[in-house]
């Protein structure tokens, strides 16, 4: 490789990355400085965390969740991790290994829940048993178990690794459907209440590319391979569409999402079912729900009674998710 | 130069003498959705790649809808 004069905007050392949305290149040290500042700004602007909070980080083995855990620990927060074994074949085995190594190497506390061992099902089986697309069965399971673990463990807040690309893609999808209920709930902070723990997203000002770069320059090993049953889902197609726009208009994703949070979200306050106070207690588990039995309990009932479905059978079912 | 691609993982041989951005363009890959690692080091878009380099093109897009 031959250097061609790429210099860090801050210190003029050789750059490792160019970030068109900042119209700048950065060395490893100043890339990290940028990431720290963006996370701190998100935490402060949205009142996400207090210094003495007990934090539970939802970790998957991917770059974002390991990066946010790393950044919070580096910033001095008390943060434990929770990993959920989803039973997605070798992918889940590999993902769990990355999480355990990350925690072990840093002496961090990691809790683990295995869906099959604890609830008698896995994501491929849940998808087949309920007719839900795999990402829906996965998301429902993870949300419920993260909420429960946080409440049972006395944590003040759940942190997830959702980044700017994730949030912009969800916003894009919700906007295409004008789904007001989801739009009203798409905030970087969801306050505690009605049986839910506080949930925050400290990476909403940082892109996936910046988070992957954070992991590389920090020496964090993470699972690079994509979830085999997420391939081809709508969410990924929204990301590709937004990246095509970003290529011609650097900063478009940040403007789209952060502009929504700043100027549109305040107009939607009170528009979601939860805000309208339409939630009941699930008759089985006591969790908040809009019906008599919550979606998670219904999923567990169907899935645990179903014969285990290998991940390969879900892969053969098609690409629409 | 050897270029490692992911999802699915495979290795291809590509002539050197081109920039990182040019390599991504030639492979039809989005600059916003990938990082390039040359001989173990992250490199920016205008870094020049040469024959003999070992390259990894790492996708950064991930995630289900949840």
Short description:
The complex is a heterodimer of chains A (321) and B (66). Helix content of chain A is 48%, strand content 12%.
Task: Describe the 3D structure.
- The complex is a heterodimer of chains A (321) and B (66).
- Chain A has a six-stranded mixed β-sheet with strand order 5-4-3-6-8-7, sandwiched between helices.
- Helices cover 48% and strands 12% of the residues of chain A.
- Chain A is globular.
- Chain A is of the alpha/beta class.
- The model of chain A has no long low-confidence stretch (mean pLDDT 93).
- Chain A is built from 13 helices and ten strands.
- Chain B contains one helix and seven strands; from the N terminus they run E-E-E-H-E-E-E-E.
- Chain B is globular.
- Chain B has one helix spanning 20-26, and strands spanning 2-5, 10-13, 18-19, 34-38, 41-43, 48-49, 54-59.
- In chain B, the strands form two sheets. In chain B, strands 2-1-7-4-5 form a five-stranded mixed β-sheet, with no helix packed on it. A two-stranded antiparallel sheet of chain B has the order 3-6.
- Chain B has 66 residues and is mainly beta.
- The chains are: A alpha/beta (321), B mainly beta (66).
Q: Could you describe the largest sheet of chain B, including whether it forms a barrel? A: 5 strands, mixed
Overall average residue pLDDT of chain A: 93
Largest sheet of chain A: 6 strands, mixed
**Greatest interface by residues involved:** A-B, 52 and 33 residues
Overall radius of gyration of chain B: 12 Å
Total helical elements of chain A: 13
Globally, the shape of chain A reads: globular
Distance between the termini of chain B: 38 Å
The backbone outline of chain B, from C-alpha atoms, is: globular
Beta content of chain B comes to: 35-45%
Helix content of chain B: 10-25%
State the strand order across the main sheet of chain A: 5-4-3-6-8-7
Rg of chain A, please? 20 Å
- Give me the count of strands of chain A: 10
Give the helix tally of chain B.
Answer: 1
């Amino acid at each position: 490789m031959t250097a061609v004069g790429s210099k860090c905007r801050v210190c003029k050392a050789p750059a490792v990355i160019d970030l068109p949305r900042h119209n700048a290149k950065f060395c490893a040290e100043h890339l990290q400085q940028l990431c720290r500042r963006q996370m701190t700004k998100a935490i402060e602007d949205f009142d996400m965390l207090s210094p003495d909070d007990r934090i539970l980080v939802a970790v998957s083995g991917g770059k974002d969740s390991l990066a946010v855990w790393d950044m919070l620990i580096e910033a001095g927060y008390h943060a434990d991790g929770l990993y959920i074994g989803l039973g997605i074949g070798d992918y889940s085995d590999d993902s769990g290994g990355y999480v355990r190594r990350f925690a072990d190497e840093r002496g961090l506390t990691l809790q683990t829940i295995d869906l099959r061992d604890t609830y008698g099902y896995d994501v491929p089986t849940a998808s087949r048993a309920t007719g839900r697309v795999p990402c829906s069965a996965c998301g429902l399971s993870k949300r419920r178990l993260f909420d429960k673990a946080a409440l049972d463990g006395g944590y003040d807040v759940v942190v997830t690794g959702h980044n700017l690309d994730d949030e912009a893609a969800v916003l894009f999808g919700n906007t295409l459907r004008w789904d007001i209920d989801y739009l009203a709930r798409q905030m970087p902070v969801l306050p505690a209440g009605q049986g839910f723990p506080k949930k925050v997203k400290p990476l909403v000002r940082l892109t996936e590319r910046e988070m992957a770069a954070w992991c590389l320059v920090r020496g964090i090993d993470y699972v690079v391979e994509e979830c085999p049953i997420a391939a081809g889902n709508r969410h990924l197609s929204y990301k590709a569409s937004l990246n095509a726009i970003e290529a011609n208009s650097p900063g478009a994703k940040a403007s789209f999402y952060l502009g929504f949070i700043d100027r549109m979200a305040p107009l939607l306050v009170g528009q979601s079912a939860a805000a309208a106070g339409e939630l009941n207690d699930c008759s089985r588990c006591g969790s908040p729900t809009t019906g008599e039995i919550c979606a998670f309990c219904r999923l567990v009932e169907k899935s645990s009674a179903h014969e285990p479905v290998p991940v390969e059978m879900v892969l053969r079912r098609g690409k629409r998710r | 130069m050897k270029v490692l691609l992911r999802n699915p993982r495979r290795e291809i041989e590509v002539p050197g003498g081109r920039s990182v951005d040019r390599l991504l363009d030639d492979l039809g890959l989005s600059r916003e959705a990938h990082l390039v690692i040359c001989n173990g080091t992250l490199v920016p878009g205008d870094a020049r790649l040469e024959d003999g380099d070992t390259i990894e093109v790492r996708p950064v897009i991930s995630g289900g809808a949840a």
